[in-house]
Amino acid sequence: MRIAVLGTGEVGRRLATALVSLGHEVTLGSRTADHAGATAWAAEHRAAHGTFAGAASGAELVVNATGGLVSLAALEAVGAENLKGKVLLDVSNPLDPSEGMPPKVVTPEGGSLAEQIQRTFPEARVVKSLNTMANAVMVDPSRVPGDHCVFVCGDDPEAKAVVSGLLRSFGWPEARIVDLGDLSGARGAELLLPLWLRLYASLGTTDFNFAVLKA
Fold it and tell me: What is the mean pLDDT of the chain?
């Protein structure tokens, strides 16, 4: 697929690198076309780099890997027309560190960032996934032993199926992909982050994940 990954931080670059290795045509999007880090990444991986709008314009699937507090602004820079009808995989978390660590989760209007993105861009097909783990585990679940899970939710079943296909290509077994239903499931997924941060502090590693055990 032609995939735009928005965000040049560690998460965006990790996902973009994995997608390139799987044979996808990837463009890494940043606020400006002269972002030095993104340009260097693109050259190293024989991929493309452009502005948010430029990256998304020709993409079939858009990954939002920007910081959660600036995601809406980044997507507004993309433009509604460049998101229309496209699967928008949101892996971001609305974390606010302004009052110290650990950061608090911002829950807009009692909902979730993913739902706010969907309301703002109603013709996009928003799917929330991969936000409940470290970026290395996102693309290599074998880093953590056992039957740990990745969550998926969204209002469009076909869009969820596309994202689930990507997850399987990253190495996630079908049985570990847990469908949380419609996009309101993102509320719980985003609120897992305070627990994840506490576990990180306690365990001293990011190589862990959540597992759901059913009788």
Answer: 94
pLDDT of 28 reads: 96
- β-sheet bridge partners, residue 22: none
Cis check: omega of the bond before 102, within 30 degrees of 0: yes
Q: Is 3 helix (H, G, I), strand (E, B) or coil?
A: strand
Distance between CA atoms of residues 179 and 112, nearest Å: 17
Give the model's pLDDT for residue 8: 93
Q: Domains in the chain, please, with CATH?
A: 2-203 (3.40.50.720)
Checking DSSP bridges between strand 25-30 and strand 61-64, what pairing results, if any? unpaired
The residue ranges of DSSP E strands in the chain, in sequence order, are 2-6, 25-30, 48-51, 61-64, 87-90, 95-96, 104-105, 125-129, 150-154, 177-179
- Taking only the tens place, the pLDDT of each residue in 107-163 is 777 799 999 999 999 999 999 999 999 999 999 999 999 999 999 999 999 999 999
What number is the average pLDDT over the span 90-111?
Answer: 84
Buried-exposed string 14-25: b where 16+ CB fall within 10 A, e elsewhere: bbbbbbbeeebe
Integer-rounded Cα Rg, in Å, for the chain is 16
Q: What is the spatial distance between Cα 22 and Cα 85, in angstroms, rounded to a whole number? A: 24
Task: State residue 145 phi and psi, 5-degree precision.
Answer: -75, 160
List Cα–Cα distances, 175 to 71, 110, 150, 209, 213, in angstroms: 30, 31, 10, 15, 12
Decide which of 184 and 96 is more confident: 184
